[in-house]
Amino acid sequence: DRTLEVDLSSLAPGQDMTVQWQDWPIFIQRRTPQMLAALQTPGHIATLRDADSKMLQQPKDATNWHRSVRADYGVLVGICTHLGCVPSFEKPGSAPEAEGGYFCPCHGSHFDAAGRVAQRAPAPYNLPVPPVTFLSDTKIRIG
Ligand code: FES
User: Fold this and answer.
1) What local confidence, expressed as pLDDT, does residue 51 receive?
2) 64-72, long-range: CB within 8 Å, 24+ apart, which pairs?
3) pTM of this prediction?
């Protein structure tokens, strides 16, 4: 079976979890209103390489400003698009700039909570978004 069902009921706002799907780590985050506001801040958008995700990297139903089917949950393939390290979650509020994005420890690429890469990062593309279907309010299928 190439699909994976994930129960999101234990995921609190501002938290993330990682599951394995087809040998890839998949990051799932539950977004707070602050995280969503940060994604839309013009000053932040100006720092992104591909703010509108024109270089594909996501299914049609996630081609929007939050790069997800539902704005309150983000689902991303957790492999850095530079050389494949696994970025770590920056818990919202843990640092001045931390709004639930991801930082790759290998060469310092930064991705925001929607997986959009910073202009100044070595990684060339935003993090990919896998196909996601909501089976209920707290259950998704990946794949
Ligand atoms: Fe992530 Fe190089 S592998 S920045």
Assistant:
1) 95
2) 65/39, 65/40, 65/114, 66/31, 66/36, 66/39, 66/114, 67/114, 67/115, 67/116, 67/126, 67/129, 68/114, 68/129, 68/132, 69/132, 69/133, 69/134, 70/134, 71/31, 71/36, 72/30, 72/31, 72/36
3) 0.95
ipTM greater than 0.95, yes or no? Answer: yes
Q: Show which residues are catalytic.
A: 107
Q: Provide the pLDDT confidence category of residue 96 given band limits of 50, 70 and 90.
A: low
Ligand 1 lined by 127 (C-beta under 6 Å): no
DSSP 61: G
Mutational test site, ligand 1, from 49, 81, 82, max ligand atoms within 8 Å of CB: 82
The torsion region of residue 53 among left (phi > 0), alpha (psi -120 to 50) and beta comes to left
